[in-house]
User: Fold prolyl oligopeptidase from Nannocystis radixulma.
Amino acid sequence: MHRRLSPLACLTAALALLACKPAASTTGPTETAPGGTGTDVVAAKSAYEYPSTRKADTVDTYHGTQVGDPYRWLEELDTDETRAWVDAQNKLTFGVLGSIKQRDGIRTRLTELWNYERYGVPFKEGGKYFYSRNDGLQNQAVLYVADKLGAEPRVLIDPNTLSQDGTVALTGTAISQNGKYMAYGLAAAGSDWQEYRVREIATGKDLDDHLKWIKFSGAAWTKDSKGFFYSRYDEPKEGEALKQKNEFQKLYYHKVGTPQDKDVLVYERKDHPQWGFGGEVSDDGRWLVIRVWEGSADKNALFVHDLSGGVGKKPVVELLNKFDAEYNFVGSNGSTLYIQTTQGAARAKVVAIDVTKKDASDPAAWKVVIPEASETLRSVSHVGGKLIASYLKDARSEVRVFDQSGKLERDIALPGLGTAGGFGGRAKDTETFYAFTSYTWPTTIFRYDLKTGQSEIFRQPKVAFDPAKYETTQVFYTSKDGTKVPMFLTHKKGLEKNGQNPTYLYGYGGFNVAITPGFSVPDLMWLELGGVLAVANLRGGGEYGEAWHEAGTKLLKQNVFDDFIGAAEYLVAEKVTSPSKLAIGGRSNGGLLVGAAMTQRPDLFAVALPGVGVMDMLRFHKFTIGWAWVSDYGSSDDAEQFKALRAYSPLHNLKSGTKYPATLVYTADHDDRVVPGHSYKFAAALQAAQAGDKPALIRIDVRAGHGAGKPTSKQIEEWTDLWGFVVHNLGMSL
Assistant:
């Protein structure tokens, strides 16, 4: 929903990380530290003088197996020793990157391509229209408000004025139903921590309201516009904000004009420290629907709070508390709630539940409104008395409009093979807005008339490139176990399959995240360089529903890496490229993917770009929100899961004497989601293990986080370095 800070969207973004060999024995002697195989293999002398990294004798015992962790000290981010190590690594890395002759040309062209007008999907509230706009090279998009759709807008908030370096980002907005107030979140230096303020829309002035220690939360106004619901954690210990575990989230109600310590505690569960809460208010203002989540699993609970007597006057009712499926609130009609769910439907359906009935929690009492389809139902919105359902068919969008009884009225015609999103609004609206994008189609905003079923372009950007020169096709290849996996290939028309095409293979494969076609300036730069862009839709993602997701989790996580390696082998077999021309990349969970692939098949890739990756699979759950990923990864606390994790953990599978691809690890010193210690330790171990003459470098951004809200200037610098590294190591020219 674009009219409010969506707790579901915030949670999905937070837990989705914005990308094995035979299991180790559970008994036996102390294992060698990362970077050693137990034999005295001497690495070839490197062409790079890597900074000296101290090895400690830290050893942990997991279920009878001892595992060394010699670089544990790099987890302590603020010590003088770690800071000196970061400075030394950056000095080496930026020295190497600065010597790449193609780098200036890449930066110039990236800047030209990035300099185009971009709009967010508009939404309407209180009779006003709101949308974001970036004029091209602004570090952050600016939020505008207009009294009418065609009227001249005015600036409501410009995050670029909040810091000199553009690192303060607007993380979300929620407009009161009367259009008088805006609650908005800000985050500094890429942190997941947010601070909320309240702004008068008419004057553009902030009130005194200032809310802190908010993370993984949305904001939902009550119908009377006097206050809103949000979720927060207790203030962390001094100096621990970037790595302390996030537990015991609480749901509060904040009344405008009051201090935070007067906020009403709506719900907490002291008996469930890992439960999190996201509140949404129904259009009629009667229901607060609380999505209860635990970790990153797609199975959640759904509680309801009747607000008809006021906040906190009636008890919170545990409507659906079994955590047996995914349940998402869509909308309401009186006492009937529309719920999107995977209960009895792996690819999701929509049901109607009368919450006043005694048997409301019994699936047998629910009315199926939109039954499960062969395509994967990803989202549903309740707008203008319609249910707008967005599906994925082989990882590309299809959108259908149903009436409230579930009768199909029409499909929404989309411009082509791509991704559509948006479709927010209220039950009485007569219009909605959506965005469409593909690999060569810049994100275009459409207005959709709910009465006529017609779409018209609201804003279409102009980018300095010719999309007619490129084409996107979808292929299906066979993974190791026989599973058919889809992959998108984008390149210049007339590609010659001679095995010599520089190719960038990207993947994610986790947390039910679907990787769908989308426009990206860095990708466009790669295409202009003559590269092939390959995007594989791996298991672990959400492209084909929950079964596809679960097939890439926990003890089955190796399927994800097999799928990715299978994609590379397909590209080589089809003579699209060859190992000497193949680069791989991914971020977060995708960084783990790259780390696992390059340690399992170092011979298959020439360049690896693991970004903000989860590299230590034995300790990830000990920091910030890492415990929430156990539902996807499993935990080293479990003996069987430890064996699986140890078998593919990138940090623990580096072996001395191995020729690894040219690797540029990249992370940020303020990443409080995947803490930078993951990348620090992996880079140190890789430098110790590298036997070939290829570089093993780490790029550490400062005053930056996991990636959300990164200023345009920092994005240009980062991709200048990444593509410069790839171009140089693949022997490409501009």
Summary: The CA atoms of residues 155 and 491 lie 39 Å apart. Residues 80-98 form the longest helix (19 residues).
